[in-house]
Amino acid sequence: MSRILVTPLSAVPDVIRNHRPSHLVTLLSPEHMIDTPEGIPNDRHLRLGVNDIVDVSAGENPPAMSHIEELLYFSRSWPADDPILVHCWAGISRSMAASYVILCDRLGRGSELYAAQAIRNRAPHAYPNALLVRYADEALGRQGRMIEAIRSIGAGTMVAEGEIVEFPLVGL
């Protein structure tokens, strides 16, 4: 089944073993970046060295438009025959934002609120990184709809680490 899997870093080995994704997106700070795990071809692993901050002046390695451009280019090469695994440190913010970007891109214009609500329904803990969403909204020409949709679902339930979440591309 064609789906996006979102996990914290701690669950990556289990998800690779149990779900056999064909592609992997890692969003971690540069100093915590991982090597490509066994079971994933190196050319199917996108590593985005980005900190989980929402203000470009708040620290080093904030999300940038270039991260969204890389994510879109990479995710568009995913044939969706097997799952794509997206993870960050906790599976709450950066990975949820990246998954939202992939969903909005795959589902097309007008899907912004639908995709945001699907994230909230399947992941009560999700709190997608607002800066990544802002850049994606601009890159995809969504005229603020992605930003507003994520704002409308709120911050989510506070947890230290998210759970494994599946987003099917059909029948969300």
Could you please describe the fold and organization of this structure?
- By secondary structure, this protein is of the alpha/beta class.
- The chain has one domain: Protein-Tyrosine Phosphatase, Chain A.
- Helix content is 37%, strand content 15%.
- The protein has six helices and five strands.
- Helix 5 runs antiparallel to helix 6.
- The protein is globular, with a radius of gyration of 14 Å.
- The mean pLDDT is 96.
Total separate domains? 1
Kindly state the mean pLDDT as a whole number?
Answer: 96
Classification by helices and strands: alpha/beta
Give the CATH level 1 class: Alpha Beta
Which strand-content bin applies to the residues? 15-25%
Low-confidence stretches: none
| Adjacency order of strands in the biggest sheet | 3-2-4-1-5
What oligomeric arrangement do these chains adopt? single chain
Sum up the structure in keywords:
172 residues; alpha/beta; five-stranded mixed beta sheet; 5 strands; 15% strand
Short description:
This protein is α/β, with parallel strands linked by helices and 172 residues long. The protein contains 6 helices and 5 strands, in the order E-H-E-E-H-E-H-H-H-H-E.
Compile the SSE list and pairings.
Blueprint: E1 3-8, H1 12-19, E2 23-28, E3 45-49, H2 65-76, E4 84-88, H3 94-107, H4 112-122, H5 130-139, H6 145-153, E5 165-168
Helix pairs in contact: 2-3, 2-5, 3-4, 3-5, 4-6, 5-6
